[in-house]
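Why do we care about 3D structure at all? Because function follows from shape, and shape follows, mostly, from sequence. That is the central idea of this module. The next example makes it concrete: a single protein chain, its amino acid sequence, and then its structure expressed as tokens.
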Amino acid sequence: MAQPLMPHATASWLVDNTSLSFEQIAEFCGLHILEIQAIADDTAATKLTGRDPVRAHELTMEEIEKGQADPDYTLKMLKGPEQVRRTKGPRYTPVSKRQDKPDGIAWILRHHPEISDGAIGKLIGTTRTTIAAIRDRSHWNIANITPKDPVTLGLTSQRELDALVAKAAKAAGIEAPTDTRLEGDREALIEQLRAERTAAANAAEAGEAGEEAGPVEHTAETLFRS
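And the structure:
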């Protein structure tokens, strides 16, 4: 059941301005009857300022009158106006990060020219005019703009950027770039771990055979386990 926006303040107003039963007020406000009793006795922990549910369009006087006439009547809350949710337009960027937008835009233009201006605008929260000015270097602050990864700047998430790059690459008919910067290091690490596992297995077999084990060399794997 829907409840008023400020249940305790609404309950205080209903206690002071109507003859509704505590049970009716408690049920309408979604509160325990003892809370209503405390409000009525002025023993609540916090002094409440009443909130008129009629003016708030949550309850009608007709409903209140029905409840006052019948103690068993359950008050019905009005359906409030639908909240307007913003679904379109540029994304909001905190003031502290807005000065970083040109750097993020310049980075995308340099590394992912396949992404459209409209897509950049939605991702970063900027206008096509600003993007065009940075592209043709007519931006008023172009001398101080340095291309920087927008993810590092906190202007977007890596997941959003990757999804946009993949979508733009697909639309342009090109293969999405793959990050291979750590590929060599990854392969070397895998080979190192394999060698360490083999050495550990050989040491275990030597121990079972009663052979004297040599000094233990701490490896990345053993240190991580410990």
